[in-house]
Write the structure tokens for this entry.
Amino acid sequence: MPEYLLYFNQQWVGEHTEEWFRGRGPLAKAVIAEMKAAGVYVFAGGLEEEDGPVYTADSTSGSLVVTDGPYVETKEFLGGFAVVDVADDEAATMWGGKIAQACGWPHEIRRFKPQPQAETQT
């Protein structure tokens, strides 16, 4: 079955009270539990916004340079994601809709490219 990425950019979250966020956590955890019970859960997690380490790896100059900090020129950054293994786009959008409703902000749903088949030696 294909795997799908359900994700949101932190900027899509919007401004909310701490109480509002506390009320969303149990809803999102319930959707994750539902994914696990349905056997479609691969992984899910939110990313640390301010306190966690952030590194940039860049080899566009011909040699690898790793630096501290999110120095990529962008106004948006990934806030969190889930990976599900489902039969088709319909199932993926259903799970994406459930997690978007639980979190209270938009999510994007994208299918991963199929993994290349390993060659078997005879």
